[in-house]
Write a structure and sequence with these properties.
Layout (H helix, E strand, L loop, with lengths): L7 E6 L4 E3 L2 H8 L6 E5 L2 H8 L29 E8 L6 E8 L3 E9 L4 H17 L6 E4 L2 H9 L13 H16 L5 E4 L2 H4 L10
Parallel strand pairs: 4-7, 7-8
Antiparallel strand pairs: 1-2, 1-3, 4-5, 5-6
Helix pairs in contact: 3-4, 3-5
Length: about 210
Amino acid sequence: MTKQKQKFYTVWVGRVPGVYHTWEECKEQVFQFEGAVYKSFRTLAEAESAFQKVSEDFIGNEKSSISKDFSQVSNPPEENTICVDGAWNTRTNAMEYQGVMFPQMKRIFHAGPFPTGTNNIAEFLAIVHALTYCKTHPEISIIYSDSNTAITWVKNKKAKTKIAVTNSNTTIISIVKRAEDWLLKNIYTTKINKWETSEWGENPADFGRK
């Protein structure tokens, strides 16, 4: 059996910001903490160095994943657009999502972590959140998501999730219902396009915690 490599976690916003050596320690600082901001790193030195800087330099700014020379791509992504992505932790069931401006790589919104959810729900809510943002920023005409499922849910104005309603996920179910209601009541002209990972590299909004 291959031994899993250790990761180190930088918490910029949490109960006690700092650098932690295990996910369990990190989770105590960020789980169910509204607006928590954190990220994993491969080495302790990287995590400690990141803690001395602002989170925006690392979250939603995966420079290595978008280092492709887009001038060599026949159909590159449009600029002045929003890239969205969601993350779901299979161990804790926690879910979150964010939106990042491309190519500026500036995070414009983040929500979570929520105690329960799914990756598809996170991706769905990220697109809807971006659509509400574009309502007040009409200069942004395109939202990119790498989730075909979430894009379909948004176009159908319905999140076809199979998640069972429990006492622990009433909050996220309520948020999904509000998102569906917004889609039903609002007209938008913003395009929702697929981020072509195979051609363009990792989604700029990726959390980088794989």
